[in-house]
TrEMBL record:
It comes from the Bacteria. The keyword Ligase applies. This is Amino acid--[acyl-carrier-protein] ligase. It comes from Mesorhizobium tamadayense. Keywords: Ligase.
Length: 307
């Protein structure tokens, strides 16, 4: 991890050479070393400790979610290019023989699979909203959750910070517009202070999501104009284009309306989430402090390992 190498491919190669990540043959799909996982574990502890005074309810969802939920959330309208759906073989013996024949001939045997009810989770908070809505009206003081999930996005890349399967830790506030805005403000401050305490260079900037197609441009502009998304950026593979490691999203009452999330008086709830990209933070730490976590600056180790 040479301070001069600042492009995706050479960072990825040096991560492989240093035994921090392991190749799988697929871009964006990597094995992680024990040291890498330990950094993630400690960082998660740090996040949890910072959020502890707010007494969030912790939920760990699996990396798969209800496909119907993903459909209803509008994900396929905005990000069809990123979504992944689990398919399985559901035929009988005849179809099985056909499948093996297709495989042997190098044909597209996946044509014999059918979509299951499971989609891969694209962001940790997607499975949450219907789960909360099913529990009845939201109390006046709002609800706060701390989530963690492996997430899938079909965006294969040589950039080690753009994985296809990665973990996201999120805090999600459901409440009034004012409650969720002040939640986001407080995490913008806390998140920046936390990253700075790890001696990583960072900046916070307005951002937009990569909405699909021509209509998507308008949605992205709207998101920017209304200041709905902020990102905390850290240079990982490029100084000019730093990587979004934390995201702060205000959904207005989009999920409230979609899932019927209401207060007892019938008013729709607003929501906001702050997402921590765990692999991206770990990569930023290895990138800036070196391949051997035991040799990181004492101040950084003290923050991480005291958590
Ligand atoms: P980007 O603009 O880099 O694509 P994003 O805006 O898509 O990021 P979000 O949708 O806000 O990111 O996801 C929340 C967090 O998950 C991000 O802040 C980031 O840390 C992490 N993340 C997103 N996509 C990936 C990925 N492909 N690989 C690793 N981490 C990711
Ligand atoms: Zn979210
Ligand atoms: Mg993205």
């Amino acid at each position: 991890m040479d301070a001069r190498t600042f492009d995706s491919k050479s960072l990825l190669d040096s991560l492989f050479e240093n035994g921090i990540l392991f190749e799988s043959g697929i871009d964006g799909l990597y094995g992680r070393s024990g040291a890498f996982e330990e950094v993630i574990e400690q960082f998660e502890r740090l996040v949890t400790r910072l959020g502890a005074p707010d007494k969030a309810t912790r939920i760990h969802f699996p990396p798969g979610m209800s496909r119907a939920t993903l459909e209803k959330s509008g994900y396929m309208k905005s990000f069809p290019q990123l979504a992944g759906c689990v398919h399985s073989f559901m035929g009988g013996e005849r179809e099985h023989v056909q499948l093996l024949g297709m495989m042997a001939d190098g044909g597209d045997w996946t044509a014999l699979q059918k979509a299951t009810d499971v989609a891969l989770t694209p962001a940790a908070c997607y499975p949450l909203y219907p789960t909360v809505a099913a529990r009845g009206p939201v109390p006046a003081q709002g609800l706060l959750f701390e989530l963690s999930s492996y997430c899938f996005r079909h965006e294969p890349s040589k950039d080690p910070a753009r994985m296809q399967l990665f973990r996201m830790r999120e805090f999600v506030q459901i409440g009034t517009a004012e409650q969720v805005r002040s939640f986001r403000e407080s995490w913008l401050k806390r998140g920046k202070a936390m990253i700075e305490s790890l001696d990583l260079p960072c900046e916070v900037d307005l951002a937009n999501d990569p909405f699909f197609g021509r209509g998507g441009k308008m949605m992205a502009n709207n998101q920017l104009d209304q200041g709905l998304k902020f990102e905390l950026l850290i240079p990982v593979t490029s100084i000019e284009k730093p990587t979004a490691c934390l995201s702060f999203n205000y959904h207005q009452d989009h999920f409230g309306q979609t899932w019927g999330l209401k207060f007892a008086d019938g008013e729709f709830c607003h929501s906001a989430c702050v997402g921590f990209g765990l692999e991206r933070v770990a990569l930023a730490l290895f990138r800036h402090h070196g391949p051997d976590a035991a040799a990181w600056p004492t101040a950084v180790r003290d923050v991480l390992w005291s958590a």
